[in-house]
Every structure is written in structure tokens, then in C-alpha cells.
Amino acid sequence: MSVHALALSPTHEFTKQPVSRLTLLAGLGVQGDCHAGATVQHRSRLHIQPPPPNLRQVHLIPKEILDECGVEPGQLGENVTTVGVDLLALGRGTRLHFLPSGSSSSGSGSGDDGLDLTIQKPHAVVVVQGLRNPCPQIDKFRAGLKERFIVRDEERRIVGRRAGVMGTVEVGGEVSVGMRIVVESRGVFEALGCV
């Protein structure tokens, strides 16, 4: 489980530019990214008063899903492209610890792979808040692509979304391509809804 690619954009462009490292800021998001902030920064929600808390500080998506859809990392506006993490199956409140490759672990408590997260120096931690709802901008990027990120039942009702997850930064720090991701689940599973 690792970081495959990273991206950010200081402006509200749909596609973000690839970078080799990001700085995560606690309670704010990705330094230098247009979606960073304590309150919501997505253009479609800026009109809400008072502004709601920003639960969409970091967008993560599995490389495996991008590959299925023929999309390159950063093209859908995500910040972190992962490999080997089933992000869509995680529960709300799951903590993702970003650790240097080769380290034995870090944080507080134990990761789902049994690693002791208390023995590591401080590291970036993102808390999963919910699913990204596939938006119409995906079809503006490529006609018909949005439907590839939606799961429908036999009656065409939406029963799932595959455009990644959104999270908040609990502990700031550097994240770079190749870092390991350690998953720390909450005691009680809470299914992800759209945020």
C-alpha cells in the first residue's frame, strides 16, 4: 500500500499538475492547492452561508480505478493516487498514515497490518470523511466518463460511487511519491457517504 502519484493546483482547474511531494497542513489540506482551507473551498459550495467545515481537504483515488477508466493521475483533480489500498471499502474516520518506505510504522496505536504506530516520529495523517460524488465536470473532461465512476443496480439507481474518497488532514507533514500508507480503522465501522 503506497503513494503512486501526487498532484495539486493553485487555481480551480479540473486537472491538477503532478508533483513529487506535497505538504499537508493540519486542519487545512494541501499547501498551495485551491481546495485548502478550514471551510469548504469547492466552487459549487462557496455560496453556502455560513460556510461549512471543509471535509474535502484531500482527494484520494486508487490507481487501479484510474487504470480501468484510462485516466492518468491528477486528471480528475485528485491530490493522492494510491496503489493497493481499497479506499472505497474504508469506513468514515479511518486514518491513513503516510510513512517513509522501509519504516516500521508511526503515530498512535496500531495499524490494521499490526504495525505499532507509536514508535515512529511524527508523520502526515489523513482522516477519511466520505466519498467523492462524481460531478458533471468529469464529462466535460471526457464525454461519458462520469458514468464509469458510478455503480448502478438493474433499475439504474445509483448504488455506489468510484471517484475516490475525501479526507481531512489530522496531522500535517510531507507526503512524497513512494511513501507507504498504513491504514488505521476505527473500532466501529461507519459506511462512507458523499461529502
From TrEMBL:
<dbReference type="InterPro" id="IPR005302">
    <property type="entry name" value="MoCF_Sase_C"/>
</dbReference>
<dbReference type="GO" id="GO:0030170">
    <property type="term" value="F:pyridoxal phosphate binding"/>
</dbReference>
<dbReference type="GO" id="GO:0030151">
    <property type="term" value="F:molybdenum ion binding"/>
</dbReference>
<feature type="domain" description="MOSC">
    <location>
        <begin position="17"/>
        <end position="184"/>
    </location>
</feature>
<dbReference type="InterPro" id="IPR011037">
    <property type="entry name" value="Pyrv_Knase-like_insert_dom_sf"/>
</dbReference>
<dbReference type="InterPro" id="IPR052716">
    <property type="entry name" value="MOSC_domain"/>
</dbReference>
<dbReference type="GO" id="GO:0016301">
    <property type="term" value="F:kinase activity"/>
</dbReference>
<keyword id="KW-0808">Transferase</keyword>
<keyword id="KW-0418">Kinase</keyword>
<keyword id="KW-0670">Pyruvate</keyword>
<protein>
    <submittedName>
        <fullName>Pyruvate kinase-like protein</fullName>
    </submittedName>
</protein>
